[in-house]
Amino acid sequence: MLSDAFTLVAQNTWNGAVVLGTPVTAWRGVDLESAVTRAGLNDEAAGQGKTGDALGHPFEAVAWLANLLNRRGRMLGRPDPRSVFLGGGQAYRLSLCRSDG
Fold first, then answer.
1. Distance between alpha carbon 89 and the CA centroid of its chain, in Å?
2. pLDDT of residue 59 exceeding 80
3. pTM of the prediction?
4. Quick one: which of 83, 66, 82, 86 has its CA closest to 74?
């Protein structure tokens, strides 16, 4: 059971799903803090945000996590190809129904 709202936010437990696309290998040319993201549902616009809306540059979240682990005597290990680290999020949510396409 979650103890408070801070735990809910820290664990990102309200996330119902994440949609992943094709991996991008030429990401160094992408403005990771200002890239616009859009969500659609049933061919209609459902939300828009920027990748930096939540915490600024997504690498800030990675640095925060690495520093926290370091203070606890741990470190980020070699990435598991089945794992995904979400370093930011958008300020909209979608409510889905069974009839949604």
1. 4
2. yes
3. 0.53
4. 66
